[in-house]
Amino acid sequence: MTKKVSDKSSSLEAKHAFSRRNFLATSAATGVALAAVEKARAQDYGSDVAPAPTPIAAQSQIPDAASQVPFDSFRDHVLYMEKRGYMLRFERMDQDAYEITAVIYKLIDEFGWREAPGLIIEEIKMDGEWIKGPLVINHNGHWDIEPLTFGLEPVPHDGPATYRKTIAHLKEIIIANKGAYPEIPPVPVAKESAPCKEVILKGDEIDLTKFAFIKSNPSDVGRYINTPALFTKDPDMGVNFGTYRCQLRGPREIGVNPEANQTGWKMLMAAKERGEKEAPVTLVLGQDPMTWLVSSTRIPQRFGPIKPIDELAVAGGVRGKALEVTQTEDGEFTIPAHAEFVIEGRVQLESMKPEGPYGEMYGYLGPEKDENFWMIVDTVTHRKDPWFLNNFTGVTPGYLEAPEAALTQVGFKRLIPELVELYNPTEHAGVYFMSIDKTEAGQGLAAGEKVAKIVPIAKVVIVVDKDMDVMNMNDIMLALASRWQIATASKIYDSLRGMPLDPSLKNPPMTSKIVIDATKQLPEEGGPDTFAELNRTLFDQGAPGTMDQVMEKWGDVLKRRHAFGSSISET
To answer: Are residue 213 and residue 305 in the same domain, yes or no?
Structure first.
């Protein structure tokens, strides 16, 4: 028998965007996706065969975003997003039967990449045991999370406008700081005051299999720690932290997988070449939003001459306030004091071990690697009742995207003055859309070429005119169908640097690429003497004000969408 959901949250639903009615409708469909495991679930849940999401406690008033930022911890960020209605809480899920995987796939199917809710799961079954969480999934998925994290309110019913609002805010910060985010040095706190030191485990006290690290998909080699900030260091490059998949191999053994040419890989290889037998590393889990952002992106600009970068200061600059930090127990690294879970150890450089396969960002199973780094765990420190994050790589968004996108747009604007907007939808890895204010022949291909040559992941670059919306697939398809001349407005490159994780590559990281100029072709480019106007443009010109008039009359109906967050009409 399914547990009943109380009506305590009705007042919250009326005030805020979260629609429990819509989720419950989806839950029925999700039940179909989970039908294959119902028998196994019944054995463990008893009569509680299909536990319903726990309702959000009624709140008389939800604090606005500006009063909450910056978030000092991962759990503060997640709890606020739960209050705002973007998270669903479950008592328990059986991941031996891949229930979490099935639910997240179903939610993405129902609500899409940018409007699916996140999950908070209090207890998880893994390897035959029920393990205490909470485990958090897809906490950055919805459009509205981006502005809320920076203290901005979303644009109601309009995900792209909400995202662009965040981009505009961040571009102002970058431009005011001469093309980069400001840096604010971290502030040390005593170990006894650091939340990440509430519990300290040493040596054989440690058993990482007892914590909420899961096997995400049946074809993965095993359980993974896939959202760490992995701290490494080098005499020349300084300290780096980056997010790399880490295979849980045993109670105190972890496989470590920085990809070739990533900074962590460079540092470990340099130590190996120096003849060192092992290298100290630390995995920091459950970071505040900006530490997670810096760990997962290339916001720290490691281009040009090799020099140390204080990435914790970068995180402080993006959040607008210094991070509180403390020292690891072995004294090797300075780490965020409010982290949920910290794993200290040593990568063994004299031997390598197999690692993988693992479901990767392109949505394909990544291959097994015959030789990869691995570490021995010496110390674990964590908060009492730590929170964990799992990223379903290639299935859900992982980190906030607007901060890196804003930095990229500002940088490319220097190289491409006619650039209007650049958009790389993470759910379509390898595809870049860009719009330009075209004034001369050849600008489309030239602009696309710069992106293709500079950005490894930009495998297909589509350039459109400024009247096309790069975040609207209808506009992109219209431009391809009506403005692109395939024979004369395309350029193929046989061998440019790509992403090693692209499953189509024969000789990673090199790949072929294409630039598509889907702008209006000028006569000197072989286009018509005059290009027909869009019907929509003629409507806007011929009936000014009509759009505003109909929105004033019927806006609530026209904006109503079946989704979460601010995209739900309050019914």
So the answer is: yes
- Name the residue range of residue 82's domain: 10-166
CATH number at residue 487: 3.40.1670.10
- Please state whether the predicted TM-score (pTM) of the whole model is above 0.90: no
C-alpha Rg value of the chain to the nearest Å: 25
Instruction: Please write the tens of the pLDDT for every residue from 251-287.
Output: 999 999 998 888 999 999 999 999 999 999 999 999 9
Asked if residue 564 belongs to a domain, the reply is no
Residue 300 contacts residue 262 (beta carbons within 8 Å): no
Nearest by Cα to 195 from 341, 88, 77: 341
Rounded CA-CA distance 167/211 in Å is 37
Amino acid at 36: A
Across-strand partners of 511? Answer: 496
Closest CA to 74 of 338, 449, 284, 376: 338
Query: What is the H or E stretch that residue 381 is in?
Result: strand 369-382
In a 3-state reduction of DSSP, which class is residue 251?
A: coil
Report helix angle 402-415 to 159-176, nearest 10.
Answer: 60
CA separation (Å) from 23 to 83, 85, 102, 538? 16, 11, 15, 41
- Classify the C-alpha dihedral 359-360-362-364 as positive or negative: negative
